[in-house]
């Protein structure tokens, strides 16, 4: 008479947990650190990829975009500066933000 062995349930859960940790670890490592790049390298990376999420500090990150197509309706492009290896205030690319005031009907000059 043959007996069937029960599958070990703990091993499956452990393997799944390890796979999830690897994915999370890889995602965090994949984000480029703006502070370790030169200003030119950061600008070229955004231009090449269209949008990049850079690590900007110990616990901070930010999205940099190359053009308006990455913005939601109603948002505008604003120059976004970041700390690079060679420039503490490098104009890396743009960020999408809602304008503080609408431009319609407001004429300054």
UniProtKB/TrEMBL annotation:
The keyword Signal applies. Keywords: Signal. It comes from the Bacteria. Residues 1-30 form the signal peptide. This is Secreted protein. It comes from Roseibium polysiphoniae. The lineage of its organism: Bacteria, Pseudomonadati, Pseudomonadota, Alphaproteobacteria, Hyphomicrobiales.
